[in-house]
Amino acid sequence: MNQAHTTTLVTGASRRIGRALAQACLARGERVVAHRRIADAVPEPFAAPVDAWCWDMLQPLDSLPAQDIDHLILSASLFERGHAWNALSADGGAASASAEERERFARHLQVNLLAPWELAVRLNARRPLRSVTMLLDTYLDRSFPGHAAYQVSRAAGAGLVRALAAELTPCRVNAVAPGTVLPSVRDPAQRAEQEDAIKARTLLGRIGAVEDVVDAAMYLRDAAYVTGEILRVDGGRFKL
């Protein structure tokens, strides 16, 4: 298919990795449908015109983009600091903490699992997709305190990749599982400390770059004989 006649829908396209993915598709001369959560939030201009589509992924999917979609790149996700199971709350004790965690699980599963599933299935039913590429997390099969809801939703996302690959064939469904490519703290000293810690646990001895993730996602999107795969882009972080 001529790239000029290819349309790619990128979720979470307003910022960070999602924006970089949208820019990569534009650089290829493709038409891009750039999803954002809130209609009133206007992102910085892209390198070329895009078609905007708004959907709060915590809400039901009421309608699809008007454009026919060839490739779907799912980069939007929900990440928030949580609590370990049975953590005590200063306000309401264990019962309150359990209720908060239940709500947190519901949000993460909706944004990181159910919304991607529904969007991919409904788009493919309207007109068969050529590919679906998800962004997961290199922690998808490892647990760490305080992020149970996020980690479980990402582990379920790995199962979703394999399930959709079987259900939507011949559409190819794959995922990239990035390590840390963008610092999670703004303070320069804390950021340097965080990056040093990551480098010490990574075989390649450096923190990743957004371009590393974009390159991997575009490879999987275009790989004609690859489906149901999850590609870690973490510099060998868990090989040590």
Give your account of this protein's structure:
It is a single chain. Helix content is 39%, strand content 15%. It is α/β, with parallel strands linked by helices. It has a single domain, classed as NAD(P)-binding Rossmann-like Domain (Rossmann fold). The chain has a seven-stranded parallel sheet with strand order 3-2-1-4-5-6-7, sandwiched between helices. Helix 2 runs parallel beside helix 3 (148-168). The relative contact order is 0.13. The model has no long low-confidence stretch (mean pLDDT 88). InterPro entries: NAD(P)-bd_dom_sf (IPR036291), SDR_fam (IPR002347). It comes from Lysobacter enzymogenes. Belongs to the short-chain dehydrogenases/reductases (SDR) family.
Looking at this protein, list some descriptive labels.
240 residues; alpha/beta; Rossmann fold; 15% strand; SDR_fam; oxidoreductase; NAD(P)-bd_dom_sf
Share in helix: 25-40%
Assign the CATH superfamily: NAD(P)-binding Rossmann-like Domain
**For this structure, what is the CATH class?**
Alpha Beta
Instruction: Examine the coordinates and then state which fold CATH places here, giving the name of the CATH topology.
Output: Rossmann fold
Portion in beta strands: 5-15%
Unreliable stretches covering 5 or more consecutive residues: none
Instruction: Give the averaged pLDDT, no decimals.
Output: 88
- Gyration radius, rounded: 18 Å
For the record, the count of structural domains works out to: 1
Provide the succession of SSEs: EHEEEHEHEHHE
Specify the biggest β-sheet. Answer: 7 strands, parallel
